[in-house]
Amino acid sequence: MVLDRGKERHSQSSRLKERRLQVQESADKFVALVGERVRKARERRGISRRVLAELSQVSLRYLAQLEGGKGNISIALLGRVSLALDHRIEWLVGADDPWSSEVVRFSEFFRTATLEQRRNVMRLLDPGDPARLREKRLCLIGLRGAGKSTLGKIMSKELSLPFLELNREIEEVSGISANEVMALYGQDGYRRLERQALERIVATTSETVLAVAGGIVAEPETFSYLLRHFHTVWLKARPEEHMQRVRKQGDLRPMKGNPKAMEELRSILTSRESLYAQAEAVLDTSGRTLKQSTKDLVDVVRKLEVI
């Protein structure tokens, strides 16, 4: 038995050593790749290493090590180098060669395209049939206080579809509240459960009205999956109304001990606006009664051909 344990420890130690070597080898290749791209970019600009050092305010020694594939890459310093070369930093570290890759060229066109142009491109490139993928699944997105749960429940009755809240699905699987999930497993753990819950809903039902947490848009892969498999409506409102509605629900946490709560709320709305705007439709509930917002949402959903 003692011998078996000794063999097991030796085996684990060997695996760990092998993994460390693999990680180091990968890191060395990455540093070499970045160095090569910096050198090529400098040569294409027709400037010497000394000039680049002056423009970027990065030491000549650091640049020599970097281009030689032996540098210890600091993101801040690499950022300076990329700015001095008039490059995006991702061009130096991405998997695709920025000078020969059509993917990089396409991404630049896509970056400057209008929202409508982007949607048309996505329709061309997406191999799945959106109508078939989304079926009769409707999802309401937006910040807390926009009316997702309230309007979602009403819409589920209007459409004769079941109503689900993604947080409740997470709680059902984990056996604890969403707040406890966050406290125990952190943001990463919560996001993993969020994605799993979303996939489970897609796998088990083709007809539902779903309300999701406002932060789901911050996880690119999960949000992309949501957009592919649900008809989406962004419920938006003025920051003051968001805050007022949350407080009316009895939740005083947004304001408690935080005099800058409204300023932070505005900042969150601004930072997420472009993400929420990827929804198929937008409905502004500001200054609208519940009855008016319900009628507005029914009209929007009809245009999306969910019903």
What does this structure look like?
This protein is 65% helix and 8% strand. It is of the alpha/beta class and 307 residues long. The protein folds into 2 domains: 2-99, 434 Repressor (Amino-terminal Domain) (Orthogonal Bundle); 130-303, Rossmann fold (3-Layer(aba) Sandwich). The protein has a 5-stranded parallel sheet, sandwiched between helices.
Concise summary:
The protein is an alpha/beta fold.
Give the neighbour order of strands across the main sheet: 2-3-1-4-5
CATH topology value of the largest domain: Rossmann fold
What is the class of the largest domain in the CATH system?
Alpha Beta
Tell me the radius of gyration.
25 Å
Mean pLDDT: 83
Low-confidence stretches: none
The secondary-structure class comes to: alpha/beta
In one word, what is the shape? Answer: globular
| Helix proportion | 55-70%
The number of helical runs is: 15
How many domains? The number is: 2
What kind of sheet is the major sheet?
5 strands, parallel
Tell me which CATH architecture of the largest domain applies here. 3-Layer(aba) Sandwich
Succession of helices and strands: HHHHHHHHEHEHHEHEHHEH
The count of DSSP E runs of length 2 or more, i.e. the number of strands, is 5
* Percent range for β-strand residues: 5-15%
CATH superfamily of the largest domain: P-loop containing nucleotide triphosphate hydrolases
Cα-to-Cα separation, first versus last residue:
66 Å
Catalytic activity: shikimate + ATP = 3-phosphoshikimate + ADP + H(+)
Main location: cytoplasm
Subcellular location: Cytoplasm
Organism: Bradyrhizobium erythrophlei
